């Protein structure tokens, strides 16, 4: 069983709750809390109504650092557990299993507080309507924050003294949220003009761009591949203009600075979730599958456009990490690795980044080799420490280390170019590269002896789809058949374990069980819109890489099922979840591209690709209806929907080709243009196998 939080490694549990029967690694992490947790379901809802109790809903995921902190501080606290058990029905939700539940209540938290995030803490009436919410709460009152215990007692008091007012307020909030969440076509709206949307999106990205370190904010900094893919598309449409050149420079510089930074794991490959600082230096150390899939494809495209082998090497680096550390032997991909781990096998508490960071003393001990012919007695450690910014007292600012977990430690970051480091030590460039590679390999062997972070071995259809696209696109661009084979293996896994052939439906998740056998939960979770959209995209990418028509046929089948389950016939566009779940207050249509692209954004391009392959003009029209439904947002703040913004260009060009040439030309001409603008098909630069 996975161990969450920062408790000791070996301890027999004093408490066991209903979560012990779940498959989710996140829920299992809380199965031995003194809190009487329920999973999201009818048993909990019935108890709340029968006993007229408020519901405390806690949402998170198994590799979430602050979720671990709140569990350790509050959910393992016996007194807090008593208050929760006596006054609330407590429900724990894995946001990765149930994105529908997460999005409904995150909409509330973001609308009523200064932000959102995880762990998400929301208090609901017995009929599931929210009235108070937040994210992480410390256990006790502090100078600047009210403690969790105080919040609980105040809510209990309000429920006893002002129940009717609280219920009325929750109804008003729910009504307001429903109105705010509505996305649809009003009157005779049409898809917005692509030139206006693309230009404004580029301008908004350009205004927030960090000229020195790349990225689009000061901090925290997320990789956001959707922004980079938009810039590639903008460049493709404006190759000879100054704006086009700037778009390409912004994307390539950001990718280089990310790869040089500590957000990139220089020893064990892959990318961490985000950087806490402007320089991409100190990350939150969890690694998410969805980042690896998108970034592999984006770095491969950067090589495709620029011809710079640096980007191809980073894509290869990401895929090595996923193949080694996030791959199930049955073919699927695991969800994530945690930020926290034990420093040594004897440690009693987990620390963030413990698996990844180094002291200068460790580097010197593991890389003592003297440089041949060096009169100054320099060692391999001297070269490595210089190049990767290792300092004797550690290189992490105390401002980025509030709990002193990284004090005296170093997060590796490329401090100097290879040329400058070679000049500093009087080395030939190839010799330096060999020495650094030797150093990284040796440190990788050392790291392999450390206790590994928790692995979330849940396998999600949507994230597996993103990773299949990463392997398929990289294989096609880099000329590596083994990547296409790995994508094929994963697609076979999806069809075997996350697809119900009898109903034609995707399932959301499956799990690595005992003896490493793939298991499904007793009541399988049905797939959501994002599962269909990302899997369909993956199947198109895999078809284009392999030319195996079976993937195209399955994509067509799933597209029909997606239309049946999620399409809004009144307001148009797709709902995130299907109808019929009475526990959901409303069905949402996401209106933002974030760490993952918005499902409706990808759906537009999927529909255009499907129309090209199968000659379905109605799918082009459906793509236009999605764009029309999001027209207001695309015209005002397209930077919130960069993936959909670039889809507007694909849509309008497809219509022009159709109008000029008629239906027979739609397939060949529109598909050819989609290849160029969206990065599909023949690359600008291609490695030969």
From TrEMBL:
InterPro entries: 6-hairpin_glycosidase_sf, 6hp_glycosidase-like_sf, Ssp411, Ssp411-like_TRX, Thioredoxin-like_sf
Positions of the Spermatogenesis-associated protein 20-like TRX domain: 16-177
Listed GO biological process terms: carbohydrate metabolic process
Signal peptide per UniProt: none
Name by which UniProt lists this protein: Spermatosis associated 20
Organism: Crocodylus porosus (Saltwater crocodile)
Upper classification of the organism: Eukaryota, Metazoa, Chordata, Craniata, Vertebrata
